[in-house]
Design goal:
By secondary structure, this protein is mainly α. The protein has five helices and no strands. About 85% of the residues lie in helices and about 0% in strands. Helix 2 packs antiparallel against helix 5 and helix 4 runs antiparallel to helix 5.
């Protein structure tokens, strides 16, 4: 194999490896998913102050993203589903119910995943 071909193949491998190793760009939905997971983890630990703080951050992130979501296909139904998840999370935190927080967070994550796939 010639030196040029070897160098070209090495460069190609380097480019492909770098592209595969690079994390996917964060979207608003993936950031909100991370917040929902954090709420769940905090509730599981019984850290209700952190769960409440993360919940407020999730509400703020959703307030920023919701108008854009409503413009998309099926946006209205997903927005209503996520609104209900946020209310459920808030209620579960107020009740100090880690199980309900877990269920509500999973429901929110599912909706966010669907939104992210359609974005």
């Amino acid at each position: 194999m010639s030196t040029r071909i070897s160098a070209a193949l090495a460069a190609l491998v380097l480019v492909c490896t770098t592209a595969l190793a690079s994390p996917a760009p964060k979207t608003a939905y993936s950031t909100m998913t991370t917040l929902a997971q954090g709420i769940d983890a905090a509730a599981e630990r019984g850290d209700w102050v952190s769960a409440n703080r993360l919940s407020r951050q999730l509400h703020a992130a959703w307030a920023d993203e919701r108008p854009e979501t409503l413009r998309g296909i099926k946006g209205q139904s997903y927005a209503q589903s996520f609104d209900a998840s946020l209310k459920w999370i808030s209620s579960a935190i107020a009740q100090r119910s880690a199980r309900n927080v877990h269920d509500a967070a999973r429901n929110a994550e599912k909706t966010l995943h669907e939104l992210e796939e359609r974005a």
